Amino acid sequence: MGSQEMRCKACEGSGLLMDDEEWHYTCTICNGDGFVSRYEEKEMRETDPNNRIID
Known about the structure:
mainly beta; two-stranded antiparallel sheet; two-stranded antiparallel ribbon
């Protein structure tokens, strides 16, 4: 991890997220890296009313 990267808060650095049925999938915030650049973190992302990212 470089000085410009921080551990992803969404997946806690694992690179995977889990839904309520315990299915695992790649974190959409860090793209499975487990780390987010300080510059990426400040990007505004479009979300739905449930705060899910809209691609």
